[in-house]
Amino acid sequence: MKDLLIGVTLGDATGIGPEIVVKSLVDPEVRNQATWLMVGDYRILQQGQEIAGEDLGVEIIKDAEEAQLNSGTVYFIDLQNLSPKDFHLGQLSEISGRVTGETLKYILGLAKNKVVDGVMYGPLNKEALHVGGFHFQDELHFFADLLDCKEGFSEINVMGDLWVTRATSHIPLKNVSDNITKEKLIQRIKFANKTLTEAGITNPKIVVSALNPHAGDGGMMGTEEIDVISPAIATAQEEGINVSGPYPADTLFLRLEKEPFDCLLAMYHDQAQTGMKLLGFNKGVTMSGGLPTTLTTPAHGTAFDIAGENQADPGATKAAINMVVTMASNSSSVGNYTK
């Protein structure tokens, strides 16, 4: 395995992020996979350690250039930008949202310059980011803007052996049909095939969901399957991609038992997320794919209802860490550091 320097943020300080990052990196099986460069406010890390009842034993540095590759070492750059006195746990905070965005900008700057080989960021709160001054459709578009990426990127979720991505994501349901085109679907299928291949899956099997009930019933309940989805699948098949569909969405997850597949391409957000989260909410990972660097995060949110109570399950965060290490290890480009 390559020697890796992986960037880490604590997520929105008002939620469970600091707690579950600490709980994850204190686990030797997780920690010893790479060298870690954590960025944030040290006071927030201390609060997370107090909640979790653990001590990471981080090494504080002033600049990323001080980091040396040594698997299991956790470096910390203290931005001194947020005090626990500035917010209340479990409550949305404009200040915390602004600082979360600024911290992400800092660590993505390191990723852009190939200083870190990937980033695992703690859970975010989209509303807090917005009121904090970061007005993007979602974090994926925020990341793409910071990394100067104009197209070809998409969000993909992973739960165990199942990968899930979407033709459309954070848009109103009434706009979904207008945003599904043959060209976009072909791009999404190619994106899924490339991402899974880079993760080490040979000839990944991709299934595509229908948009309408009963896959449109031959056009009686919508023609998107006939006019758009099926032609896109046919084109991808001609290019050698192992893809099939469109299949009715209400039975797609049941197919996993009899006809396992590697990746589901859904047509809209809840069509994919509902089934995936029922399969294992505390194990899911969200990856921002198609960007110049790999970014992962637990698929759940900030969990305001249990913030500060030492009840948060770190399973999804550990999975997100494992995923960024896997993807960074398979990447052709790594950071600038040497032993």
Describe the structure concisely for a colleague.
The chain has helices at residues 17-25, 28-31, 42-52, 94-112, 126-131, 139-146, 182-198, 224-238, 255-258, 269-280, 315-330; strands spanning 5-9, 35-40, 59-61, 74-78, 118-121, 154-159, 162-166, 206-209, 243-247, 263-266, 285-289, 294-298.
Explain what you see.
The protein has 11 helices and 12 strands. With about 350 residues, the protein is α/β, with parallel strands linked by helices. The protein has 2 domains: about 210 residues, Isopropylmalate Dehydrogenase (3-Layer(aba) Sandwich); about 120 residues, Isopropylmalate Dehydrogenase (3-Layer(aba) Sandwich), CATH 3.40.718.10. The protein has a 12-stranded mixed beta sheet, sandwiched between helices.
Low-pLDDT runs: 332-339
What share of the residues does DSSP label as strand, in percent?
15-25%
Compute the number of helices. Answer: 11
Kindly state the mean pLDDT as a whole number?
A: 91
CATH superfamily of the largest domain: Isopropylmalate Dehydrogenase
Main sheet makeup: 12 strands, mixed
CATH classification, class level of the largest domain: Alpha Beta
Task: Tell the overall outline.
Answer: globular
Radius of gyration: 20 Å
- Oligomeric state: single chain
Helix-strand category = alpha/beta
Helix share of residues?
Answer: 25-40%
Order the strands across the largest sheet as they lie in space: 3-4-2-1-5-12-11-6-7-10-8-9
Q: Could you tell me the CATH topology label of the largest domain.
A: Isopropylmalate Dehydrogenase
- For the record, give the distance between the C-alpha atoms at the N and C termini, rounded to a whole number: 14 Å
The CATH architecture category of the largest domain equals: 3-Layer(aba) Sandwich
